[in-house]
Amino acid sequence: MAGPMGGGPRRGPRGPVQKPKNAKGTIIRLFRYILKHKGLFIGMLVFAAISSLATVSGSLFIKPIVDDYLTPMVGQEFTKELVAPLIRIMILMGSIFLCGALASFGQSKCSVWLTQRTLNTLRKDLFDALSDLPISFFDSRPNGEIMSRFTNDVETLRMFISQGLTQFISSGIMIVGSFFIMLFLSWQMTLIVIAMVIVMVFITRTLGKKSAFFFKKQQEQLGSVNGYIEEIIEGQKVVKVFNHEGEVVSHFGDINENLRKAATSANTFASMLGPIMNNLAHITYALTAAVGGLLAIKKAMTAGDIVAFLQYIRSFTQPISNITQQFNNALMALAGAERIFDIIDQKPEIDEGYVVLVNAKLNDKGEIEETEKHTGIWAWKHTHGDGTVTYTRLAGDIVFEDVTFGYTDEKTVLHDVSLYAKPGQKIAFVGSTGAGKTTITNLINRFYEIQEGKIRYDGINIQKIKKDDLRRSLGIVLQDTHLFTGTIEDNIRYGNLEATHEDIVRAAKTANAHSFIENLPDGYNTMLTGDGANLSQGQRQLLSIARAAVADPPVLILDEATSSIDTRTEKQIEKGMDALMEGRTVFVIAHRLSTVRNANAIMVLENGRIIERGDHDDLIEQKGKYYQLYTGSFEEN
């Protein structure tokens, strides 16, 4: 809810992922985020290159150590003259490996910093995008699905950037470096290695396709399990009231079993890949060793060549194995990134309004003038096409003219609705569930755009008013209250961020919330968590009413605002509510018809149409639908 002087807060194991639809485009876009921290990325590349090259070049010393030092020493006594050169070359080799270890540490640090800063930027952009999306987006998607973007999908990206990306870079350098050195040492044995790598790639692709298919099913089933758990936890009271624990456990067992089957198949293929690659590497190692022995017999290779080549086989095949193991993770990360970008790319809430709300004052001639100071007078500032500016005092005059609306094109919810509310009037909407009462108030807020007709606010088409300014002029108390983590005072202050402690206490007294707040151990400094779970439903509703009171708006929308308050409490706050509504235009939705008796006009809705209108006495005399509702002769849904 928002008020003229403040505003409310701006409103995503792994979740369901799938193979990316546009891997190339997603990679390019993801790297744009990564390259926003170019220094860290370049640092990671440099350290990765140094670490990998140190590993590759360090092994070059094996050949001279074997051929030039160890072989000549066979059968001879160890003397200082023989051992000293060997020690020197081993110290040099150790120094290179030490540089590689230090570079690996630097790579790790750069990778961590790069990952966290990239994800920080990505989460911020995702949250900003969500804040700009229309209410219809959230109405059409489960909260858990949106939350999975911030949790599951961001986590897969974290794993990819911090581990997979560096693994690809390091492995790539080692593969290329080892290949050329192997080619230099023996092109014959290199052909054997290449042939075995081709077999490895074929097996990886075959098993990878199978694994990807079942991993997709696993993530879908995992999403179903997580969604069901969330649903049941939220509805735990209902489950227990109707003794459905057995049915819930049984159904969970079914979907959990589906997850087990999918996960078993996915991980069976995934777990096969590692052992197969390792065994193929061992076979490659054995074949090249045998061929190397034959070449050594023919004097085509030395013992140092063979030992060095065998070492480079590990340096060549191990990175390939690492890349294959990261392949599925990379696909999952790209799919997660694509899901994140899908929300970021959603069309934001359109606002073509240009009429804004400003502080105003009356000059000596009684004319409206704009001012920076808060005077308690508000005006609509209307800038016309010719550059002229006119001011209309904010009074709360709202008119519906033949409004037709449907949440989808296939189903119309409101049909040719016409009504008006003069400043200071109280308009009530009654009718069966689904008749369209809340929809009308959603249209006043411009949570949705009408298909036909017009809604005028102080004579101005609301489509010309900027949405933020429109909503600042409205105070809303919803049936489903929502409290944020923070103190009671903070939650009331959401209605007006500039409100002082005295303003908040005054608003709480108006809503009759002051007495129960004062009786809490920490009073207004009492911390609320879990949507105010430490308060009763009635107390939470009273805080919501206080939040509206501190906003001091000219128009109030009360959507069954007292539905969660018992009759005794309701009567206690009637005077406070009357004080809150005094001088304001008020729209009330209520199932308790006793709360709308003093309304200036009561609109009776049915199937999206106003079928009766008038004050309480008029409608009782008509003995129509309202009479049936009021007397109880009609059972409301």
- Architecture (CATH level 2) name of the largest domain: 3-Layer(aba) Sandwich
Biggest sheet: strand arrangement = 10-13-14-7-15-16
Total helical segments: 19
CATH topology of the largest domain: Rossmann fold
Itemize the secondary structure elements and their pairings.
Elements: H1 23-34, H2 38-58, H3 62-73, H4 80-131, H5 135-139, H6 143-185, H7 187-234, H8 236-241, H9 245-297, H10 303-344, E1 356-362, E2 368-370, E3 377-383, E4 389-393, E5 398-405, E6 414-421, E7 426-431, H11 437-444, E8 452-457, E9 460-461, H12 467-472, E10 474-477, E11 486-487, H13 488-493, H14 501-510, H15 514-518, E12 527-528, H16 537-551, E13 555-559, H17 567-581, E14 585-589, E15 601-606, E16 609-614, H18 616-622, H19 625-631
Parallel strand pairs: 7-14, 7-15, 10-13, 13-14
Antiparallel strand pairs: 1-2, 1-3, 3-4, 5-6, 5-8, 8-9, 11-12, 15-16
Helix pairs in contact: 1-10, 2-4, 2-6, 3-4, 3-10, 4-6, 4-10, 6-7, 6-10, 7-9, 7-10, 9-10, 14-16, 18-19
Model description:
With 637 residues, the chain is of the alpha/beta class. The chain has 4 domains: 22-185 and 333-346, ABC transporter type 1, transmembrane domain (ABC transporter transmembrane region fold, Up-down Bundle), CATH 1.20.1560.10; 187-300; 360-393, no CATH class; 423-450 and 461-631, Rossmann fold (3-Layer(aba) Sandwich). The protein is 59% helix and 13% strand. The chain has helices at residues 23-34, 38-58, 62-73, 80-131, 135-139, 143-185, 187-234, 236-241, 245-297, 303-344, 437-444, 467-472, 488-493, 501-510, 514-518, 537-551, 567-581, 616-622, 625-631, and strands spanning 356-362, 368-370, 377-383, 389-393, 398-405, 414-421, 426-431, 452-457, 460-461, 474-477, 486-487, 527-528, 555-559, 585-589, 601-606, 609-614. The strands form 4 sheets. A 6-stranded mixed β-sheet has the order 10-13-14-7-15-16, sandwiched between helices. Strands 2-1-3-4 form a 4-stranded antiparallel β-sheet. Strand 1 (356-362) and strand 2 form a beta hairpin. The protein is elongated, with a radius of gyration of 36 Å. The protein starts with 22 loop residues before the first helix and ends in a 6-residue tail after the last helix. Mean pLDDT is 81; it is low at 1-17 and 633-637.
